[in-house]
Amino acid sequence: xxxxxxxxxxxxxxxxxxxxxxxxxxxxxxxxxxxxxxxxxxxxxxxxxxxxxxxxxxxxxxxxxxxxxxxxxxxxxxxxxxxxxxxxxxxxxxxxxxxxxxxxxxxxxxxxxxxxxxxxxxxxxxxxxxxxxxxxxxxxxxxxxxxxxxxxxxxxxxxxxxxxxxxxxxxxxxxxxxxxxxxxxxxxxxxxxxxxxxxxxxxxxxxxxxxxxxxxxxxxxxxxxxxxxxxxxxxxxxxxxxxxxxxxxxxxxxxxxxxxxxxxxxxxxxxxxxxxxxxxxxxxxxxxxxxxxxxxxxxxxxxxxxxxxxxxxxxxxxxxxxxxxxxxxxxxxxxxxxxxxxxxxxxxxxxxxxxxxxxxxxxxxxxxxxxxxxxxxxxxxxxxxxxxxxxxxxxxxxxxxxxxxxxxxxxxxxxxxxxxxxxxxxxxxxxxxxxxxxxxxxxxxxxxxxxxxxxxxxxxxxxxxxxxxxxxxxxxxxxxxxxx
Length: 484
Ligand SMILES: *[C@@H]1O[C@H](CO)[C@@H](O)[C@H](O)[C@H]1NC(C)=O
Ligand SMILES: *[C@@H]1O[C@H](CO)[C@@H](O)[C@H](O)[C@H]1NC(C)=O
What we know:
- It is a single chain.
- The protein is α/β, with parallel strands linked by helices.
- 44% of the residues lie in helices and 14% in strands.
- It has helices spanning 2-5, 10-38, 46-50, 99-113, 152-165, 180-183, 197-211, 220-235, 247-255, 280-290, 312-325, 339-344, 358-366, 383-390, 401-404, 421-453, 456-471; strands at residues 60-61, 83-87, 117-122, 133-135, 138-142, 170-174, 189-193, 241-244, 264-266, 298-303, 329-334, 350-354, 370-372, 395-398, 414-417, 477-478.
- It has an eight-stranded mixed sheet with strand order 4-5-3-2-6-7-8-9, sandwiched between helices. A six-stranded parallel sheet has the order 12-11-10-13-14-15, with helices on both faces.
- Residues 1-22 and 28-54 have low confidence and may be disordered.
């Protein structure tokens, strides 16, 4: 149609054609990658993935594990102390840190407590001046530039001095904090990826489809994602070992980024499990405190920053429909952001609570029947999902591979949907149909799974064993006599 239209202006038509073919190429690549991405894995790893509750079958070199190390039960190794360097974009000071900062903080506080000597090169998250921290065997060096973000050269200089005094056993960087052109010259470096461009590309794709259902948008963001992905694939090999926070990201690094399987490992994020516990009494009290009517049939909850790319336009539209057709269903919104006001306008079935203190957050989760996470970002592991599961709640989330392969393994754990309003409404209706009793049962399955996989303790043990294995491959064997 378009070609006919332009046929009298050959110049314009050529341009149009080349534009068109690049679009077709991009689309084809996307479809091809989606087919790969969403196709179930059919390789020999499957038995391990199906062994959700223990990795009990595994007797081998840990570097060959094709499932999260969290699954294994590592015993204590007390006679070997490590000296580790860590590059992290920021170090949490004060409240409300993002996921990546929390990861570094939780992990390295735990490893220092175990007696390992930890040196972190970073900046304070509040971008103000703070003295370096020397707390037992945890050392945190702040190396900001004028704007308060990390001065990489300065951080590297301090690292270098400390390394000369006594060499580090291993170096760890949270994403590209230690950039690849420097990592190339650091032989013993591992990187943890909290999101890769392959996943970001999918996120942009979903956003494009939602924003421009008729395909009239500029697709700029989508077009810009592809060169970033290509660039990333080229520089990832500058890092020697790669740690992913979901099974699906690990597979992409091997199958698309073509990194050697032996250099790619999966260690899932964990949260401090003592902060998020199943407590139905606290849940009931929380409902009363915030004034949820006693005649509601079901309480849904969502938590986090109320911004567009966390999927709030999607939930807003889906819940408007639900509120009309199921007047007994209530939505609790914990968090702040531009979408808070719009939720408040949805009427008496919605309550916006604002940002909650961590101690209140656990009570909030406990007051729900099901936790909803509408995110448009198929990357990483959303910590809110894990927190809700620890509190014994089933989850309702998009069906991204990072979630379905690692968190919501099947319908026993909750409900999944494609990131569009129709599919979202169907999933919500399925949860409403099931009702509080079935939801409660699913919640207990979530809780027992979360306790075996997503705890700070498990994460710290897995990372400790990883660094030990990198230092001395005797520790790469599993199980050791000290393991359970
Ligand atoms: C970063 O640190 C180096 C010295 O380590 C210094 O020469 C440079 O000016 C700093 N850059 C900025 C932007 O602060
Ligand atoms: C619950 O009770 C309130 C007031 O008592 C009433 O307005 C509302 O319609 C009731 N909701 C349902 C779902 O029955």
